[in-house]
Amino acid sequence: MNRQEQESKTVCGGLSRPLGKKTMEHNRSKGMFGRIIGLTYALFNYLSAILVLGYGIFWYANLYVPVTIDSGAKVSLTTALLVNTLLMLFFAVQHTIQARPWFKKLFIKCTHKSIERSTYVLFSNIAFVLFYLFWKDTGGHIWQVENKIGVIILWSLYGTGWMLAFAAIFLKNHFHFLGIRQAFLHFQNKDFSQEPLVKFFIYSLVRHPMYLGFLMAYWATPIMSTGHFIFALEMTIYTFIGIQFEENMLIGFIGKKYRDYQAKVPMLIPFSRRIVTPKSLSPANQPE
Description:
single chain, mainly alpha, two-stranded antiparallel ribbon, 11 helices, 4 strands, 5% strand, globular
């Protein structure tokens, strides 16, 4: 390989172009500026995610915020199903495509790996804001609990669900989960790797405590409106489908280590996994 081939750069789309001496010096001079821009971008998305998730706690509960899941003009059931399903499809497609390895590779080739996760967070924020602004309700109710003890139990489950979800995020390093760690390490001109598989504390009880917490929050409400029911049902369907995609991807990355974790720890319901024996861990009996 000659010097010109060595001093080339692969650009978006897989094409390469030669880099002359002046271009290389110019790129080095822009390095710090680019890292500052990347960190600023990631910090904005990180803080936005905290605000969006925080707003969601009150949006789902119909408490203290001007726009909630049940506020706004009431529409027909057909309109609510159509609009809400389209919003859910945007969320599902965004989450699914941006999480795929082929998309990540393409994105990194066109930009930089330090902002890949942060960009995922940005579009997730957009998807949730669209929920908050445009989710439709019909004005009807699926159930309405009036018993005081029942109301207390449901609100307790709601709060527990959010606490469980946030605990799961923090145990996995929420700075990495929300994309700020990658940009900060790049700002320091350091490389970074993926976070290790977490298997302790609540992750020793279920493999997906964050999803379990969110599912609890979706369903635990003393007043289940039609719009809220559509959200809970469609998000539950997406969650179970998404878990299959996520676990297949983890098996591809980690292999036997994750299959062993699957065999020992249930997916969502604590203590539901049968006792593991050497026979049950044989390849023919491993979980899908």
